[in-house]
Design a protein that fits this description.
The protein has two helices and no strands. It is an all-alpha fold. Helix 1 runs antiparallel to helix 2. The termini are far apart.
């Protein structure tokens, strides 16, 4: 049975999620202690949530585009290789 291979180590995954949680907590603490009206806090919170969600989406799109480009290049590299079973017509 094949073992499932992951691109990232568990330590890197933990570091990624840990830093995300840490900075999200810092942002929420900063908003909670901000001495501004609730309307201003809500504006900052909406902007922060939008920025976080769009950064996840952007990183996924960039990764997907890179993988598609690699797959496209592999496909055409395979098509460019000559087939050893085909006879080459040298009489032109």
């Amino acid at each position: 049975m094949k073992k499932k291979a992951y691109r990232n180590t568990p330590a890197f995954v933990f570091l990624s999620w840990g830093s995300f949680a840490f900075f999200a907590a810092l942002m929420l603490i900063g908003l909670y202690t901000l001495k501004e009206p609730l309307m201003v806090k809500g504006y900052y919170l909406m902007g922060s949530v939008g920025l976080i969600s769009s950064s996840f989406t952007l990183s996924k799109v960039i990764r997907d585009n890179q993988e598609d480009e690699e797959r496209y290049n592999q496909m055409f590299r395979a098509m460019d290789k000559p087939n050893p079973n085909e006879e080459i017509d040298t009489a032109l």
